[in-house]
Amino acid sequence: MYSIADAEEASASAKEEAEQETIRNYRERIRQAERSGEFALSEALRDIIVQERDHEIDLKDALGLR
Fold first, then answer.
1. What's the N-to-C CA distance of the chain in angstroms?
2. Quick one: which of 13, 27, 38, 53 is 20 to 30 A from 45 by CA?
3. CA-CA distances (angstroms) from residue 21 to 4, 28, 39, 52?
């Protein structure tokens, strides 16, 4: 039987994994944009990655994982 703490830990892990997957996806989009010569777009995507990393750090802090 799972406890509430187990459920919260699983949820936190899933959220952290989702943040990491989002960042990986943005990195792939940056590579695609650069191959297409869309350098302004790649820079905008880099800014979004910074925000996503901040979200990841905030999540870890809130969950006491850092």
1. 28
2. 13
3. 26, 11, 23, 10
Q: Which two tokens stand for residue 34?
A: 């650069």
Q: What are phi and psi of 37, to 5 degrees?
A: 80, 15
Q: Digits of tens for pLDDT over the chain (66 positions)?
A: 677 777 777 777 788 888 889 999 999 999 999 999 999 999 999 999 999 899 888 888 887 777
64: left (phi over 0), alpha (psi -120 to 50) or beta: left
Residue from 24, 10, 27, 26 nearest 63 by CA: 10
